[in-house]
Each structure stands twice: as structure tokens, then as C-alpha cells.
Amino acid sequence: MAKQPLLAVEDLEVIIKRKDKVIPIVRQISFQIDKGEIFGLVGESGCGKTMTCLSILNLLPTGIQKIGGRIQLAGKNLEGLSTAEWRKLRGDRIALIMQNPMSAFDAIRTIGDHFIETLLAHGKTDTKAARKISLEYLERVGLPDAGLLLHQYPFELSGGMLQRVIIAIALAQKPDLIIADEPTTALDATSQVQILDLLAEVRREFGTSILLISHDLGVIARLADSVAVMYKGQFVEQDSVYQLFFNPCHPYTQSLMEARRSIGLLRNRRLSNGSSTTAS
Ligand SMILES: Nc1ncnc2c1ncn2[C@@H]1O[C@H](COP(=O)(O)OP(=O)(O)OP(=O)(O)O)[C@@H](O)[C@H]1O
Predict the structure, then answer these.
(1) Which of 12, 14, 15, 16 to mutate to test the pocket of ligand 1 (most atoms within 8 A of CB)?
(2) What's the mean pLDDT in 221-246?
């Protein structure tokens, strides 16, 4: 019997409805993610990556609609779930990590308030036990002084630290799948590498599957097992990362690789000129 994937997306179609017209933004895409697999989705800005994730979570904005396709989690069709079932699924089974970590927090509530309330909302435990779990997971994602952190406000933390807090909150709910939508784009170079390493560790330690979205092939190459290249709402290429990097077939994939190579060459030139920060 064929192995059942954790997530199966089949012929997903999403449109925007404007007064007199319908604009397709995701066109019949299909992919599967196995347990413990990191699946990369790469493509230029506006090609439909975020709308693909939001379709999976049933969180499409007003005016944008899923009009076709089937989404299954561990063999269960997600069509027709009630609001309460969706709320339980988000967080408990699928966690979302967004691009700008600050936007995920309420500025006037402490990290502890966010963490503990999320755990209580998902019916895990009482306040004392939730606090203990918060401390444990903040430490597990490499944040020092977890006790102090619980009393701090989001603005007192760096973007990299906030992204770690989000990952800790997600992990504490032991999701099967993490959807990470450009998780490092808003961070400085050092934090970017640390967050990518942390996601790799999460997969190793917890066996969590990850849908990793990025416009940067370098990020995908570092982490993903397989990858789909999205262009204007369609998948133009889909393969193992190894195959795709060594044998890019589609012209758009080739142009992404070329752009990446040029950035690498420029960076090397700057380094050999003794400057790593300013363009020559
Ligand atoms: N709230 C919205 N209302 C109307 N159209 C939207 C909305 N959000 C996105 N779109 C449109 O949907 C299309 C797909 O957008 P999407 O955000 O999925 O792209 P993306 O690949 O994630 O881009 P980026 O890498 O810049 O985040 C784009 O044409 C975009 O303009």
C-alpha cells in the first residue's frame, strides 16, 4: 500500500473576485508533504505562495476564494470543517509562522501572556502548567533567561528573538505541520541563518513536517528536501531539491538560479575587495 502523505493538495484553484472580473491567482497546483519532510515553495513576489498557504488554513482574505481542489491532512478531507474544528486544527495540527514576527504580537501584552493564553485556548492545561511548558519551550528554541522573557513586551525583543518565540509557541502545541511563510525575510543575516538552523533542528528532533515558503532559492537549498517553483499562480517545476538545483529545466527556474549566482558573485567580489556591506 502506498504511504499516506501528511498533507496532500490536489488541483488547488484560487481566484480574486473584482466587481466585473475574476482573476485566477492559484491555478490547479498539486503537491504532497510526507511526515518529517521539508517542502520548499519558491517564486517571485505576487506569484501566489501566501494564498496557497492561506488556502490550506482556510484563512483567505475577503474577496479571495478557493474555487477548486482538495486538501487532505493525514488522509482527512479538510472541506466542510466547522469554525470550531478549524480553530482547533490551526495551532494544534498546523502552525503558521509569518514573515514579520512583530505583527503576530499585541504590543501591550507580555510574551508570557501570549504564550500562556495560546496554550489555554487550545485546552491544554491550567495556568501553572502552561507557564512551565512556556519556560521549557523558550529554552528549547535557544532563548536564554526564559523566566525574564515571559515578563517582557514584544518591543523589548529583537526580530530574531520574536521569531524564536513564535516557533516555541508553535512547537509547544506539537503540530504535525509548520507552514513557514518567508520566516527569515524580515531578519538580519545572522538571525536568518539561526532561524533556518532552528527549523532544521525542529524537524530532526520533533519529526515535524514543514512547508517552507521563500523567494530565495538559497533558503530553500539550505533546508528543503523537495521543492516546487511557482510562477504566475502555477507550478512550473517540482522535484527533489538535488535534482532541481543540478538540472533546472524550466526557463523561470534557470533565471532564478542565474539571479542567485549573480548575487553570490557580487558578494564574493565585495568580500575580496575587503568590504562586506557596501556595493562597489
Ligand atoms: N488581500 C488581498 N486582496 C486582493 N488581492 C490580494 C490580496 N493579497 C494578495 N493579493 C493578490 O494575490 C496574488 C498572490 O499574492 P500572494 O500574496 O499569494 O503572493 P506571494 O507569492 O506570497 O508574494 P510575496 O512573496 O510578495 O508575499 C497577487 O497578485 C496579489 O496582488
Answers:
(1) 16
(2) 93
